[in-house]
Design a protein that fits this description.
2 domains; mainly alpha; about 85% helix
Length: about 180
């Protein structure tokens, strides 16, 4: 249930990002054409220069994005995903305050993932031990033993059971006679 909650939260953020990204692309596209028109002042000879300036700006923007990809893209995404997936599932106070952890450091993020994996493995081991205990408790022989103990200790004695069986058998025999007639 927790995974579904976090996945739905992540998908809603992704949808919001895509919508905002499409608006930003449309804005930049129209702004680029507006810049070219403003720069050329309606002169078709200067339009090519305006398009070159816009292309150079986009090339510079792409180079800067590649150079600063860690600080602009990787670290914020890593930080966002860590806060999204680890904020509710931090069982101890060591990881409950994610702002104290330097998530920009890849090593710290890897350590956080390893610690979470270790905790999951511990919980899985505990569950397996509990299942083994339940499995040992509910074997066929134990269940038969418990049933017989309950039967003996209940108010039904063997005489009562015999009377009930005799009445049931009598009714069945009586019904068979009626059906033959």
């Amino acid at each position: 249930m927790l995974a579904a909650k976090k996945t739905s939260k992540l998908s809603s953020f992704a949808a919001l990002f895509l919508i905002l990204f499409s608006f930003a692309v449309g804005f930049i596209l129209f702004f680029s054409f507006a810049f070219v028109w403003w720069y050329s002042d309606g002169n078709s000879e200067k339009m090519s220069q305006g398009y070159m300036i816009v292309a150079g700006f986009y090339l510079l923007l792409a180079i800067l994005t590649i150079i600063f990809r860690k600080s602009l893209l990787i670290n914020p995404i890593r930080s966002f995903l860590a806060k999204l997936f680890f904020e509710d599932s931090a069982p101890n106070k060591e990881h409950s305050d994610l702002s104290a952890i330097n998530l920009k450091d890849e090593k710290a993020f890897d350590n956080l993932l390893l610690e979470s994996k270790r905790q999951i493995m511990e919980k899985e081991e505990m569950l397996q031990q509990n299942f083994k205990a339940v499995e040992q408790h509910f074997t066929f022989t134990n269940m038969v033993k418990m049933a017989t103990e309950n039967l003996v200790s209940s108010y039904m004695t063997s005489a009562t059971v015999a009377k009930l069986a005799f009445k049931a058998f009598s009714k069945l025999k009586h019904k068979k006679r009626r059906l033959k007639k």
